[in-house]
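Hi all, long-time lurker, first post. I run a small reading group and we've been trying to get comfortable going from sequence to structure in the token notation. Rather than ask abstract questions, I figured I'd post a concrete chain and ask someone more experienced to write out its structure so we can walk through it together at our next meeting. Sequence below, copied exactly:
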Amino acid sequence: MMGKMYYLGNGFEKNADLAYRLFERAIKDGYDEPPGVLTYCMMTKMKNTAAYGKVNVVGSALDAAWDMMSGNLLRGLSKGMQTQAQINAAQNNPRALLRYLPLQAQQLAGVDVVKNPDASLSRLRNAAAQKDSVALNNLGVLYWNGGVIEPNMIEAIELFVQAAGRGNMEAVANLGLLYYDAGVVASENYSKALEFLSKAAKAKHVEAMNLTGVCYRDGLGVKKDYAQALTWFSEAATLGHAEAMKNIGYMYVSGTGVTQNYEEAYRWFKGAADRGNARAMYNLAVMYLKGAGVYKDPRTAASWAKRAAGLGDEDAADLLVCNYCGNSGRTNCDECGGRGQVAREGELSHLTWSCSDCSGTGKVRCNAVHLADY
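-- Answer (accepted) --
Happy to help. Here is the structure in token form:
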């Protein structure tokens, strides 16, 4: 197709924008082959994220202005800086927005492709030319991730299709993962994702198991089925998949498809957190803060929140900043509105007196639990 030719520069000068428009037109006309569809969706995702990021700059500025008025400027400014950093990173390296795919273990004439892909690239190409399915998949991964060779999404996807056609479950899973990611661009991609993911899941591909569970839980490409979701999450969790453990914990804490059980939720969140899952750490922090399924323990809540925040969980970082005083320990007095004085009652209502709640200072001590102090 013409879009592919302009994307690769075959017979024409490379032109990504024109390739994108041609992909879009072909898809509207019924084209549904993975290379063109997935490349178009990933290009759309990068474009949309960059555009959304620009909107977030305005949102962060508004957040900062609101927090300034409510006495919590530090939180707003922090969020604004985080958002701007994310936008800058996306603009400098748009491909960083896309999923990173792992190499499949393979030995080629004594060279470990996983540990030394650069040195083994020539041998990898030769093995791929001989239709070795692992080599086809690994060469596709290198084209997808870039670094060792110039990234090329179409080349990568075509190699995954070839490897999958030869029964390579890693390649099948890779196609499922990419279709899943493409679902945010066009929801019909989720049904295609589930087709590949469920096939790989049945072959014990652990990430495919987890995402198959997500599809059934959220109704992505299939009717919601919480029993199926729990089954697939449990299969993945048995193999040590932290995200699947976290997902089971969420089902129990929310009562989604199961009887709500905070103790069981805690057990699964703890297992996921012990394996480095930041979101599970945040959930544990909330449970300890609220005393849900565990005794209230601000010190332990703070410990989990700090670990999660250190891994980039923004909600955990927010949990460490007081909503009322921004960790300053002081907030405007509700009785006098921060003025320090209130109106007298009765005939002399035009006179004012010092507020007894704040002793005329306009500020009161914040009584919230400040996790940052632990």
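A couple of things your group might point at:
The longest strand covers residues 330-332.
Strands lie at 107-108, 111-112, 330-332, 341-343, 352-354, 363-365.
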